[in-house]
């Protein structure tokens, strides 16, 4: 079957390669059995090749069909190839020779490269594709070492994504330096190793606008990025994180991050969205960090835990410091102090039109909290209530849930213009 498929694929490609042949935008070649189902070839997962003849090519799954039958001779005819994806997640090892041939024949015009293949020996992507027109590089399951920014430079690269890549902190810093126009950076599940004399990872970029960091553990991470607009940290373990910039930050998201010292410096003045979830908060320090964000429009504190049991989220302070706030989402362990002191005063959340409130453990305090916040949102349009309802409920839990439902029904009668939604887990 494999041999006949390769022969047929060659015939099709030869047809489309002729000057007067048809020029489709995309061609899919799928090896299948007599019933039209994808079939394994030599123990390898079924082969799917989406192929954009004009500008892009994607090779997936099977090395037997994926690279062997598409020889460099055939692709030397396609000098305008701009997008190349080599994705072989389920192949442990693949010969480096055909991969190098692909890169050598396409690198002069290549703008988008998605590279996820383990080769023997390892292919140095920086060496093969540096100093070219590459604008987007997505690299996964590889090792990067010995970066030389003066030689392996990416003058046009705007987006860099590294996933499950082994790299030293120094090489990562040098790689970022080699990308003078980079705007978007993704670092996901990196194996970062430090030298004996280096305990801090320092990254510097004056063009970077968007960074996403996931599943990374470091003692100290310092990011200097004057143009940074969006910062998203997820599932990271950091002792210290410091951001040095010029106040361009507009989006801050922290999700399931363990950090002892978090410092965004003077970058909070222009924040418009702050989204914090699954995070231990020292409210005084956190509030001080974002207190100058007078342009804040969305604040989300979800499943947060306070470092000090006596700390509360001061809603009155939120209303006075963030006058443009239109979307407020709160979910944390409620105590009587949080209700009493958090809602004291005659403040009004004038511009809040969407209010999301959640609980992890239902209690009578939640109804009081919802009612109190509703009274302080005169222009509210939508109320979303999130809750966790266990499969096995005690009689007391059933009673509280019933009381809460009744109280919400009464509130809906009072606030007829407010749309109410329930989202239970």
From TrEMBL:
Residues 133-233 form the F-box/LRR-repeat protein 15/At3g58940/PEG3-like LRR domain. InterPro entries: LRR_dom_sf, LRR_FXL15/At3g58940/PEG3-like. Coiled coil: none annotated. This is F-box/LRR-repeat protein 15/At3g58940/PEG3-like LRR domain-containing protein. It comes from Rehmannia glutinosa (Chinese foxglove).
